[in-house]
Amino acid sequence: MLATSLLNPHKWVDNHADYLYAYAISRISDDEQARDLVQEVFLAALEKADKFEGKSSERTWLTAILKNKIIDIYRKRSSGLNNAVKVAEKEQEDFFYEDGHWREEHWPKELGFEDNDPLHNKEFNHVLQRCMKKLPELWLAVFTMKHMEDEPTENICAELKVSSANFWVIIHRTKLNLRACLQKNWI
Amino acid sequence: MGPLKKIIYNCRRATFLIEKKLIDRLTLREKMELRIHLFGCSVCRVFDKQSAIINKMVQQLFKAPKDSGAHLDNNFKQELQHRIEDELNKN
């Protein structure tokens, strides 16, 4: 028996579909997959509706289900041999000399967003999103999980099966590549 | 190379510490290392500033799904609600 007093599935689509879709698309950048996810979330939610205790809001509960499904997608996308990682690593081998000094041609330069607030700069956001898409899936997964919900590092390591040492390597390399990409594309 | 010179020269290490600082915390030793390095390295100071801002921007992307304007079309939504009603009627 559905706890209808707590959940209102007749209104789910009206109340939450757009929110869940926007949440999904900002994290997986795949329109079709995001739509499928929204549907899957509602169907999964119906199945476990009797477990909903009303401790959180309906939306928070649905979003938590969605979040788990997104992590599943990250895991799938980043598993297996990853050629993209090798390419991305190669790219940044040139950033530094052997002693760790920046090579002059890769010096971070002021890009004009350091001192003013770029948060509402749409164009900058587009460049940022494009640069994120160029990251290897595993790096993007680690990076996104860290920043989307401030997920604890241990969880990320467990979910994506990376060691703690490797986690830090990935965080570091991701930022080096992302920043370099911004510098290249944002002038 | 002496240990101090290693710290001063190693921008790769400094950028690593900058990333660690942003999500976790540094040990006392690491803090000293980074401070010494940044004191003498204007290039890494730029990286330091930019890196924090990039994190903020990325978090903003994820926190404001409503503002993104992304939404589903009505046909899809109608079908979806039908699907839910069907499931509800099964029980």
Name the beta content range of chain B.
under 5%
Largest sheet of chain A: none
End-to-end Cα distance of chain A, whole Å, is 59 Å
Number of domains of chain A: 2
**Uncertain runs of chain A:** none
Determine the fraction of residues in helical runs of chain A and give it as a percent range. 55-70%
Rounded Rg of chain B: 24 Å
The level 1 CATH classification of the largest domain in chain A is Mainly Alpha
Low-confidence stretches of chain B: none
Distance between the termini of chain B: 74 Å
How many domain modules of chain B? 1
Largest interface by Cβ-Cβ < 8 Å: A-B, 56 and 46 residues
Discrete helix count of chain A: 8
Rounded to an integer in angstroms, the radius of gyration calculated over CA atoms of chain A is 20 Å
Query: Do you know the CATH architecture of the largest domain in chain A?
Result: Orthogonal Bundle
Structural class of chain A: mainly alpha
- Number of helix segments of chain B? 5
Number of strands of chain A: 0
- CATH-level-4 superfamily name of the largest domain in chain A: Winged helix-like DNA-binding domain superfamily/Winged helix DNA-binding domain
**CATH fold naming of the largest domain in chain A:** Arc Repressor Mutant, subunit A
Short description:
Chain A is built from eight helices and no strands. Chain A is mostly helical. The longest helix of chain A has 22 residues, at 164-185.
Q: Can you walk me through this structure?
A:
The complex is a heterodimer of chains A (187) and B (91). The termini of chain A are far apart. In chain A, 64% of the residues lie in helices and 0% in strands. Chain A folds into two domains: 9-78, Orthogonal Bundle (Rna Polymerase Sigma Factor, Chain: A); 83-185, Winged helix-like DNA-binding domain superfamily/Winged helix DNA-binding domain (Arc Repressor Mutant, subunit A). Chain A is mainly α. With 91 residues, chain B is mainly α. Chain B has one domain (3-90). Chain B contains five helices and no strands. In chain B, helix 2 (11-23) runs parallel beside helix 4 (42-63). At the A-B interface, helix 1, helix 2, helix 5, helix 6 and helix 8 of A face helix 2, helix 4 and helix 5 of B.
